[in-house]
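User: Predict the complex with calcium ion.
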Amino acid sequence: MQKSFTLIVALLALTVSSFAQFPCSSLFISEYVEGSGNNRAIEIYNPTTTTQDLSDYSVGRYANGLTTGMFSTLAGTLEPYDTYVVVLDKRDPNGTGAELPIDAALEAVADTFLNPVYVASNSPMYFNGNDAVALRHFGNDIDIIGRIGEDPGTGWFDFATGTWSTANQTLVRKSTVQIGDVNGTDVFYPDTEWDNYPSNTYSNLGWHTNTCYTPACASQTNFANITGLATSYNVNDPVVTLTATPQGGVFFGNGVFGNQFSPGSAGIGTHSIVYTIVDGNGCVHSDALCTTVDLNVNIGGSEIASTEGLDVYPNPGNGLFNLEVDGFDGVISYTVYDAYGKEVKFGSFVANGLEHESIDISQQAIGAYILQVQTSRGLYHEHLIVQ
Ligand SMILES: [Ca+2]
Ligand SMILES: [Ca+2]
Ligand SMILES: [Ca+2]
Ligand SMILES: [Ca+2]
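Assistant: Here is the predicted structure with calcium ion placed in the model:
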């Protein structure tokens, strides 16, 4: 009992201390600009599905190894998967020395400007490489660049090569990072979560690529298309190679083997051929086309316009069909083909008024057949179903 109570308390403590620190659940810093002169920017990214009230957030720094920070509260809102670019407010074109204006390209991509006047005790955006920079939510650090309480000299250098750092660089958060670095006291290597760009690079500001974002699958209609399928085939036609865009999906349907469609294997009838592909976001896309496979009938004569006076019953049946002809004269011949175009029955008789002819294909397999009747008035076709 005591043990389980302790466990529950420990679990509760763990839950409280890591509140809101789940992937894709909190804002984080997606870009950091520490350039020449006064060129400074922090880009914030919203990886969540809801609009965030930026007045709950602040940005700032722990200067030169200090453990007390200075922060500026933000304002406005930030839409899901959007960015907010905070830039140091030095825009006076006549400024020189410490008042040097920021580059025009940086000014152009700002969503807000902060700290126009340097005040030693309150200058959050005046970081210069050796200051831990942080994003706060309700006064709590939720993402920290650098190490609070440590002055690294120039800046924190990358572990892999030791050739770049938090000074005179633009750092872009790797797209796979889905949560801020909430631990501001451990060793910091920028290359763990950041890619580096030359000093005064601004072209990545105002947007961020991140794996928290998955586009709605429904927004991608007409993504998959079957391109290599005719609307009709004869049953004796050769195998067809199916094609579709984009490549990499799979085909399904009667007569489909891999990317090959065999009209003969599909058999007589209408078949739905489906192409399915999964895109890079895990969205499933499909395209379906119908194709009809028919018998390749080469006997002359035109189809009888009206089937009045011709009937076959019972159909579907057990293989014993009655062909009824009424009002026809002369020789009537009939042929039954199976689904692969093979003749399985032939017969003929002389009609004189009302006639009944028995057609027996009960020895054939269950399936679909085609009955072709040749009369003095033309041809008549009907599907026979043996079940
Ligand atoms: Ca500093
Ligand atoms: Ca600098
Ligand atoms: Ca850290
Ligand atoms: Ca960016």
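The two ends are 69 Å apart (CA to CA).
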